[in-house]
Amino acid sequence: xxxxxxxxxxxxxxxxxxxxxxxxxxxxxxxxxxxxxxxxxxxxxxxxxxxxxxxxxxxxxxxxxxxxxxxxxxxxxxxxxxxxxxxxxxxxxxxxxxxxxxxxxxxxxxxxxxxxxxxxxxxxxxxxxxxxxxxxxxxxxxxxxxxxxxxxxxxxxxxxxxxxxxxxxxxxxxxxxxxxxxxxxxxxxxxxxxxxxxxxxxxxxxxxxxxxxxxxxxxxxxxxxxxxxxxxxxxxxxxxxxxxxxxxxxxxxxxxxxxxxxxxxxxxxxxxxxxxxxxxxxxxxxxxxxxxxxxxxxxxxxxxxxxxxxxxxxxxxxxxxxxxxxxxxxxxxxxxxxx
Amino acid sequence: xxxxxxxxxxxxxxxxxxxxxxxxxxxxxxxxxxxxxxxxxxxxxxxxxxxxxxxxxxxxxxxxxxxxxxxxxxxxxxxxxxxxxxxxxxxxxxxxxxxxxxxxxxxxxxxxxxxxxxxxxxxxxxxxxxxxxxxxxxxxxxxxxxxxxxxxxxxxxxxxxxxxxxxxxxxxxxxxxxxxxxxxxxxxxxxxxxxxxxxxxxxxxxxxxxxxxxxxxxxxxxxxxxxxxxxxxxxxxxxxxxxxxxxxxxxxxxxxxxxxxxxxxxxxxxxxxxxxxxxxxxxxxxxxxxxxxxxxxxxxxxxxxxxxxxxxxxxxxxxxxxxxxxxxxxxxxxxxxxx
Amino acid sequence: xxxxxxxxxxxxxxxxxxxxxxxxxxxxxxxxxxxxxxxxxxxxxxxxxxxxxxxxxxxxxxxxxxxxxxxxxxxxxxxxxxxxxxxxxxxxxxxxxxxxxxxxxxxxxxxxxxxxxxxxxxxxxxxxxxxxxxxxxxxxxxxxxxxxxxxxxxxxxxxxxxxxxxxxxxxxxxxxxxxxxxxxxxxxxxxxxxxxxxxxxxxxxxxxxxxxxxxxxxxxxxxxxxxxxxxxxxxxxxxxxxxxxxxxxxxxxxxxxxxxxxxxxxxxxxxxxxxxxxxxxxxxxxxxxxxxxxxxxxxxxxxxxxxxxxxxxxxxxxxxxxxxxxxxxxxxxxxxxxx
Amino acid sequence: xxxxxxxxxxxxxxxxxxxxxxxxxxxxxxxxxxxxxxxxxxxxxxxxxxxxxxxxxxxxxxxxxxxxxxxxxxxxxxxxxxxxxxxxxxxxxxxxxxxxxxxxxxxxxxxxxxxxxxxxxxxxxxxxxxxxxxxxxxxxxxxxxxxxxxxxxxxxxxxxxxxxxxxxxxxxxxxxxxxxxxxxxxxxxxxxxxxxxxxxxxxxxxxxxxxxxxxxxxxxxxxxxxxxxxxxxxxxxxxxxxxxxxxxxxxxxxxxxxxxxxxxxxxxxxxxxxxxxxxxxxxxxxxxxxxxxxxxxxxxxxxxxxxxxxxxxxxxxxxxxxxxxxxxxxxxxxxxxxx
Lengths: 339, 339, 339, 339
What we know:
The structure is a homotetramer. The first copy, chain A, has helices spanning about 10-25, 110-120, 145-160, 175-180, 195-200, 215-230, 255-265, 270-275, 280-290, 320-335, and strands at about 1-5, 25-30, 35-40, 60-65, 85, 90, 100, 125-130, 160-165, 180-185, 205-210, 235-240, 270, 295-300. Chain A is α/β, with parallel strands linked by helices.
């Protein structure tokens, strides 16, 4: 950490900071500048208390952390990107680009099987679909719950597709993990650390969506919670952040995909459906997601979007899914990847 | 709902929308405008599926909801503001302004008792303190857990202060509720609906912090989750939202306090410590919170902020607490409230 | 406009709104809903005063605009996208993808010629470079001014590249327009309507950067200022918006590119250098910009970024420029465009 | 500046940075940490080129500025807050709390005189009113221009109130300065540095609104532009920032008022009308603005808000103005100020 002192701080007050830094387990190094004095506190910031508390002292202008706070998810020192394997399918590294498609919510056997067959045919390797749905209002459709899980299992049995579904509650870990190949942690729970740890304990691969107001650093720290709980199978999923723009539901942050891939060895996939919140932008954003370097796409597809029980406005229909596959294909190839 | 059609939409496509609106349970009313046609869909939006899905149709330009989505938390039709009672102390309505003070984390018996005594002496009616702490990094201090709860119980026994402490996990409901008078749901869990429902079931009063990227409407909808689960004892807590500003940890949104009090009958308190994230702004923001009309303050106090195990930079010391009380007093009086 | 009245509004108060709506030049249509009554106000919203003022009346819950506010920039009713021509080079529509490259600031003859030659060789059709620089601090390098313009003219003379340079002041219109082929309006002036109108009057093509906190709708309205002043040669440039994320300088909003292209017939280019603010993400974001459907790239290039007088951290060096060209080529082809 | 090197950087690459730091005019000091090495670059950051460009080098992880970039506006080294005097009335320091009231736009003689008289009677010392209006759409009312200035002069002649009005264009400096006592720079021009310098040159006191996406530091830097151009008469005006919240037009950032007053000696006033964008929150936010420590209020008042030509939904009527004065009075007194 670097502690910046106010200009013209008296010697005795400088010494006071040095003494406290030492007390908190760091070795202080004084650097006298032209205008201001700074104290570099030597020590592993991850193993010691934060010195940011010193910011309450009148002679301290600011405290600047120097080290990255994540270890296990960091790219540093790694030779190569990680590959996460779920349902026998690798995601990340030099693996083919992965398409994960399916409805926002599982609604009926007919619906989920129709999408699963179409997804399979279109080349997807995973079927997504919510059995438990986090909804802003308690009066909205909350998902079919266990019945939804059964329908996902049925669709897997028929098509062989891996299942991606959201885990909403610590109490559901066992039953959701029994069906899911990728346990999804949703944006609203991205810093629900109890749930992250419970999910990690299931042994299943985890797909961690970025929270609505989560910095990339915090997203990686949430992944660090999973890895430090002993589960190294983590995939990051960018799904848009909340900004002032109201023309789209969220602002899809493709720069964050590039940044996460530089900072970390974890695979990163993109959800353009949540990102845009409007179906007319989904294909363009999917092409861009491929080109920025994502390892896969998580995309919402429904046989009849206008009658969907949740988020119909952002779901592709089956023809839309085929168009998406056609449009991304040359970009997948341009990235030197199998599709 | 109002469905806005694109200019120059053909009659047959207008009819198609009317038919679908009827199918989804609403009664369509066509209004032909100078430029555009709109269809008003009559029906209770809270009891029917959303029509927003129609936004995927090419002839639909936009879909505008008309009704507020919250019922139980709404001001409408109420004669007066609600009073929440915890540990025999009323919050909200015409009750006195309430001071809730205490450390970010419970760290030791000595620490919590020192703060509890000072808080009691300063006129606080509640002691706050985290036993379970949600931390961005898994390597940071996570709270004392059950030991922390015991220390809070001890402090309550000695001082009689009500206890405010955070509930982090569905698995902790019983043991946290055994000690807490106000169960706090933190900003990172503000849309963890499973936790909200579990907390509601405890029968304890709930203090619901606003999420980092939560619109006021969504905050009220989260409160609606608690109320619709049968627990009417809900207090809202504004603690700052996340914006682009980096000079403060969060942007305390006092307009949201005024708005929440207009829209809802629930009490609203303000947390200026999280709001500013720096102790030198806490007292000024506390005065402003009183003047905007808040029903209470939740403020962080530590005997030795520089050595706090979490968030020391935003905690007042004991002298700071006394200064705060002195500074807010005339504003509390100006609001026509007892202090 | 749609005026939503509060539930249970008395008849006399409904009539009061109808009367006022008529007085303000619209024709009111009453629709009685199950819960609430709404009044649709028929009339061209662009030719009448806004009814949003009615929101101050106690019986009015909200006022919802229905029509889009832009006319000239709107896609609606157009058969095809516009092509803007500058220095004989077409941008937009089915024109080839355009590369605009050059330093943040023009610093010296040697510097600008080195970049111009490299840009030309790499296939760029425009040279960018700031002669007048808007800097956050008055103590930072403010650009070479007229000398900078002369150097740009020199570089154009040698290479034939069109010139893109920023107009900062109404007082500079004449001299900047004498050199520039594309007059750039920077993000900080994107709603400086006096400057927009002055720039429009120059007759030069205008490149309008999106402001840091500008909704897509407002960006299009700013373009409408230029078009309504009689200048139809407008290019939009997405350069990132300001969000809470601190890992990058801005959040490049590629969804906004897709949205602007749907809503408007104007060409859209992307500035990944400002968007990321860090050179290590520029190439990935450039690929994504191509794939999302942008008509060109505006990219910062400097022979020696570490010694740049402004924003060195986001400038590619000459080798970087060549790598960028190589990496985007297959994506340009995938989009069915010449490069 | 502090240059943080990546872990395990080779010696030769460390030396390379040291050499460059020296070349750019700083003195490098090497500090070897447990995990990482940092180089402190000694020198006045305001008089040297930024080292942030070094961030492009592969061995550099980050570059952290240490010094504040503002000098003239800084609190540091000042004994007391500044008082700005306009029309013989002092603002800031220990001067009375100042009320500045008036319509969004000057619309007619009748309108402006009605408001001016009411404002005078209510105790205001300044009349606000826009003659030139920056509007999102070119089709909206743009203000009366010179006629509006004449009407403001008339109102001043009758009431003696000082005039606050916005300067929109460098070309209007002379005529606006002939009437205004406080030249307002609007939020959309807050980083229009040409306009700031032109305004400074008028010799009039400047009221600088905070931009929609402006950090406090950048706001102070904009004030530094005025002061470094030789005009020390600057007032800051907080008017809300743009965030994700849609329940209000802007998010009034009262923490920024407290922060600006800590960091700078300049007076700070608050505009709750723009801040909320809805009249029903204006009085509550005005009380809060007083209590947070603002030096004055800039508030919109119109005799008939529903028929206002701009922003009627956020304007108080004359009775509302009187209520505001009544409600803030005890808080002004609580702050120990004359009203």
